[in-house]
Design a protein that fits this description.
Shape: globular
Order of helices and strands: HHHHHHHHHHHHHHHH
Helix content: over 70%
Structural class: mainly alpha
Radius of gyration: 20 Å
Distance between the termini: 32 Å
Number of helices: 16
Oligomer: single chain
Length: about 325
């Protein structure tokens, strides 16, 4: 149905030739825009109802009681269904530390939440199928779990800004109960709020994806990040770091890159770098982390993401 709408708008109404690069790129843009925004609206609504049962207070309460490893696993899993974005990184980090959540467990949550959230999972399923979705979900959770464990084992609390430990959030620990109707109203509001904040990023990403799909020669991408380049995965990670996007925004670019023949591991590494290792994310986290801690975090993330990329390139 959506393909027919895109074909009608671009090839019939606009009169562009499907054999041209412009026609192909615009058709890709229109089709992906319709598909992704419909998926986003549905996914955000459903996931918001689920998220209403896991407010930050409850998440902190659960994680503060868990030990290393079990806490890292649980934190990574909770990160999938708990609201998180770059703008909330600082208050969430402070809240976790104040609630007594171990530093390593806190990082497992902070890594998983933007990288492997439910919006990314459902969009990946809609665009690529369950196999790719399962691979990305498993890889993202492994990075979050082991990245957090390594940080926890290093005992780097001294490299967290001192004021974080001095703050008292003033929360009573009580979690307000909501009726199901209130949860639905929250979900409806959340759809408008999230779409209002991410629509531009998604449109830009789809535009980039459309350009790659229609104009970028396959041999160009093959040279810089194709299967024949042994440094394809590090290159993909380096390309992803300067970008600023959430998982929903980067998926159209990933889709176009895969169409051009880039290996699965290389594409996964690129997506992980954009969502969990972006430069803007590091700038925001600098407010609560000293440069040494930020360097350790970025280093661990870079190494683990590159390893994941090489492993999946080897086995797929």
């Amino acid at each position: 149905m959506l393909h027919k709408i895109a074909d009608y708008l671009i090839y019939e109404l606009a009169g562009l030739d499907p054999a041209t690069k412009l026609g192909d790129a615009l058709n890709f843009f229109v089709y992906d825009t319709l598909k992704i925004f419909i998926l986003l609206a549905v996914i955000i609504f459903i996931s918001s109802v689920i998220r209403s049962y896991f407010p930050p207070e409850r998440t902190m309460k659960i994680l503060s009681r868990k030990k290393l490893f079990i806490g890292n696993i649980l934190a990574a899993l909770l990160g999938v269904v708990t609201p998180f974005c770059s703008c909330s990184a600082v208050p969430l980090f402070i809240g976790f530390v104040e609630a007594g959540v171990p530093l390593g467990v806190t990082f497992s949550f902070l890594i998983a939440s933007p990288m492997v959230n439910e919006v990314a999972v459902v969009l990946l399923y809609g665009l690529f199928g369950w196999q790719v979705t399962a691979i990305y979900l498993g890889a993202g959770l492994l990075v979050a779990i082991f990245g957090g464990m390594i940080i926890g084992k290093l005992r780097l609390e001294k490299w967290v800004e001192e004021y974080v430990y001095d703050i008292r959030t003033g929360q009573s620990g009580e979690i307000a109960k909501q009726s199901f109707k209130e949860r639905l109203q929250y979900a409806k509001w959340n759809v408008r709020d999230i779409l209002g904040r991410v629509w531009l990023f998604v449109i830009v990403a789809i535009g980039i994806g459309g350009f790659i799909h229609g104009y970028v020669p396959e041999d160009f991408l093959a040279k810089i990040a194709g299967p024949g380049n042994p440094f394809a995965v590090p290159v993909a990670v380096l390309l992803g770091v300067p970008l600023y996007s959430n998982a929903a925004g980067v998926i159209p670019i990933v889709y176009a890159l895969m169409e051009k023949g880039l290996s699965m591991g290389t594409v996964l590494a690129f997506m992980m770098a954009v969502t969990a290792l972006s430069l803007p994310e590091m700038i925001i986290l600098r407010k609560v982390l000293k440069p040494q801690m930020l360097g350790v975090f970025a280093g661990i993330m870079t190494v683990t993401i590159i390893i994941v990329g090489y492993v999946f390139n080897a086995i797929l």
